[in-house]
Structure formats: C-alpha cells, structure tokens
Amino acid sequence: MAAPPTIQRRGLYIRGGWREPSLGRRLPVINPATEATIGDIPAATAEDVEIAVAAARDAFSRDGGRHWSRAPGAVRAKFLRAIAAKIKERKSDLALLETLDSGKPLDESDADMDDVAACFEYYADLAEALDGKQRSPISLPMENFKSFVLKEPIGVAGLITAWNYPLLMATWKVAPSLAAGCTAVLKPSELASLTCLELGAICIEVGLPPGVLNIITGLGPEAGAPLSSHPHVDKVAFTGSTETGKRIMTAAAQMVKPVSLELGGKSPLIVFDDVDIDKAVEWAIFGIFLNAGQVCSATSRLLLHEKIAKQFLDRLVAWAKNIKISDPLEKGCRLGSVISEGQYEKIKKFISRARSEGATILYGGARPQHLRRGFFIEPTIITDVSTSMQIWREEVFGPVLCIKEFRTESEAVELANDTHYGLGGAVISNDQERCDRITKALQCGIVWINCSQPTLVQAPWGGNKRSGFGRELGEWGLDNYLTVKQVTKYCSDEQWGWYQPPSKL
C-alpha cells in the first residue's frame, strides 16, 4: 500500500496566489474509505466570489487583452502544455491525493491523471489552431460585400464541477475555457477539492498570469450560487445534479447569461441474444460499477433479451462476486467507497425502497462484511423491477444495477427511452444493422456500441432532456467558450444608392 502524500493546507487560489477566505472558515476533508479527517479546505463566501470574479475580469481585459484574451493562441497553448507536463510529473502524488479525497481505487485515479494531462495537451493544440481559423470567409451572392467570422472568448467563465471525477471534471472546463482566451473562476465540489487546489499550485509553478484562473472552494449556497448569479460572469458551465442545474439556469436567466449543463442520467444498456455472454457481462459491470457507480452516464438500467436472461444473470452475479472491494489504496482494488456518509445513506434508501416495492435484490445491497469502516457498498444487482419503481426512474449514483427483460427490439427501445434523462445509452449485439437502428432510435447524446463508458477527449460529451445541454470535449468543448462575430465589409467604390441624394448646390 502506498504511503499517503502530505496534505497541503491551501487557501483560495486568487490572482495567482493563496488567500484565506474572508470569514476565515474552513471545512473538514474526510477520507471516505476510513472516515478519518485528513485536512481541511477554505470555505469561501460571496465576498470571496467578488474578489475572484474581479481578478478574472481584470486578467481578461488587462492591457486590452494583449496578455491573454487577445494573445495568439500559441501563447495560451504554452501554458496549457506546461500544466500538462506538471500533471505528468506529479501524477503519483495527485492520484494518491484524489483517492484519499474521493475513495476511488488508486488505479482509477491514476488513469484519471493521464486523462487530465491529455486534455490540457489536446486543448493546447486547439488553442494554436484557433488562430488559423480566424477570418474564415463566408460565401456571398454579392460581389460588393465581403464577410468573415471572428471567434472570440466569451469573457469570464464560472466553472462549477462535481465530486465524482474531481480534477478531471474541472479540467474538462478549465482547459477549453483557457484555450479559448477566457479567464475563469473554478468552484469544485466541497466533497472533493484537494486536487483542484493543487492545480492552483501548478499554475503558480508554470507562471500562469495572475487572475487567468481562480479557484474557490466551499459550499454550494455560499460560493457556487453567488458565482452562477454574478453579473460579471459571462458564462456558467456546470456539472452536477439536475436540481442544481435548474437553479443555475434560473439565476443565469435573469441576465440572459449562456449556460452549459452536464446533469444526471439513467442510461440504458441493451443486450441482445446473439452476443458473447462473458464479454457483454464485463461491459455491463464496467458500465455501472466503475467509480462505484458514481458516474452520470453509468448504464444503470440493463435490458436483457429474454432468451439469454437467466444465463446472463448467473454470469453477472459470478463476475460481481469476483470484484475486489477493499481500501482503495490496495493493489488490485476495483470497487472503493462512495464519496460520503450522505451519499452512502441515500444509496441504502434506494435499495431498501426497491425491496419494499417488490424488487428482488439478486446480489449485494449491503456493506461488505470485511470492511467495518468507510462508506462501502457491495455491487448490487436488482431484478423483478417495474417501470414505475423509483429504482428504475431516478438516478442512484451508486453501484446499483436494475434489470428488465425484453422480447422484441421495439420493446427494448421503448424501455430504453422511458426516462426523463438522455445522457448515454448502449447496445450490445453482433448484428450491425440492428445496432445502427437502435443508435438512431435512442434519445440521448452519447451511444456506445458493444461497449459502455469509453470517454474520448476528441469526441463530444453531453446529453438531452433532463441530462442538460451543450457539449464538452472535442472542438465542441472549445466552442462553449467562444462567441462568433460576423464582420462584413462593403467593397465597392460606388455610392450605395438606396436613397435619393440631395441636390448639389
């Protein structure tokens, strides 16, 4: 087992340095795998938000934006690549810190840090390429006009992120916003902020201009809400619950402020009877038990063709029993703890209610017997589910899989789309034409064929319906932080000629 790194006592990262919160309050950091307090973070208030937004606004407009917002993309790319290099250099410590803060297996945190570095590098490339895409000509039917497009940074971005992938979710917003030329205020979840504060330390090391990125930690009502409603924040990007997303939309609407929202999900995985059972089973458990099911796109509703249901369930339970549940720092751990006591109790209530409504807990549903401390829940498989049950309709955000059988393709699609959410969906079948039909029929922003949950920095990520709107990652992620300006020039030497000229004296 790896030795824990030293937990640095950081302040708020504002204007390129550390600052204690205005009221001097701090929040405890709890290791969810041990329930031990391992440090604390600053508890920002509206006053701190004011200071952070002012710093970002100043950095955006300083010297006419020559140092950041209007600088060549290559200038911004240099800083993004330097951040990526520091992430790689400190990968082991950052991964360890992420695991201590969030309870996820160390192997998962390690992979997350690779993705963080790759994301910064990818958007460094897009920042450089942005210069060459400026002044893109527009084809016009008139010779006496010429028109082109400028893509400009939208301004100060308020970035509010979730706790399930603390540094990675932050990077999905920080990297493209900075690449676009925005300045930003990042507010990570109070449940997992340590690695985001370490990002501030990295920004100091690479010499990021003061105020370009500011990081405030604290509670949602005290820090997140003032940030999303702030009149000098030009754009809000949020990842989190649908209910909080509604409140952010309401606040932004008062100033007609653009928002992008990546919210909850209840994603389906449809498995047909022509598959390799064990291959499909592994994708099914990867799609729900990765990160203890705390994944917005988790394929938490498994739809099985009736011909293979019994065989599939037998193998599903066998694979679930083989998952190593342990202290997340132990080698080979594949299921760590959930994030907090509150989340632990919420998941247990979901399971209890499913049982009371008549569902069958086929496997799991309790604390692992060998782990007496920490917020651990066994991988849980629930059958005999009806579409009216809470377990079918609401997002659990835990290692809980509910299962229904189907007979026909049309029935499978109807069940898959029977949700208010629309983030992801998956189909496993050896019939490519069937996969193509279902891909078109699923009402969601992401479809996986013969797999579940691959996430690629080059490909768009986002949902429909109550899973939000807007797309992160890929070029779409950069577009989130750009505004399009049309420039049209009259090129003729002739008088326009719409009005009768006055008589010459």
From TrEMBL:
<keyword id="KW-0560">Oxidoreductase</keyword>
<dbReference type="InterPro" id="IPR015590">
    <property type="entry name" value="Aldehyde_DH_dom"/>
</dbReference>
<feature type="domain" description="Aldehyde dehydrogenase">
    <location>
        <begin position="18"/>
        <end position="487"/>
    </location>
</feature>
<feature type="active site">
    <location>
        <position position="262"/>
    </location>
</feature>
<comment type="pathway">
    <text>Amine and polyamine biosynthesis; betaine biosynthesis via choline pathway; betaine from betaine aldehyde: step 1/1.</text>
</comment>
<dbReference type="InterPro" id="IPR016163">
    <property type="entry name" value="Ald_DH_C"/>
</dbReference>
<protein>
    <recommendedName>
        <fullName>Aldehyde dehydrogenase domain-containing protein</fullName>
    </recommendedName>
</protein>
<dbReference type="GO" id="GO:0047107">
    <property type="term" value="F:gamma-guanidinobutyraldehyde dehydrogenase (NAD+) activity"/>
</dbReference>
<dbReference type="Pfam" id="PF00171">
    <property type="entry name" value="Aldedh"/>
</dbReference>
<dbReference type="InterPro" id="IPR029510">
    <property type="entry name" value="Ald_DH_CS_GLU"/>
</dbReference>
<keyword id="KW-0520">NAD</keyword>
<dbReference type="InterPro" id="IPR016162">
    <property type="entry name" value="Ald_DH_N"/>
</dbReference>
<dbReference type="InterPro" id="IPR016161">
    <property type="entry name" value="Ald_DH/histidinol_DH"/>
</dbReference>
<dbReference type="GO" id="GO:0047105">
    <property type="term" value="F:4-trimethylammoniobutyraldehyde dehydrogenase activity"/>
</dbReference>
<dbReference type="InterPro" id="IPR016160">
    <property type="entry name" value="Ald_DH_CS_CYS"/>
</dbReference>
<comment type="similarity">
    <text>Belongs to the aldehyde dehydrogenase family.</text>
</comment>
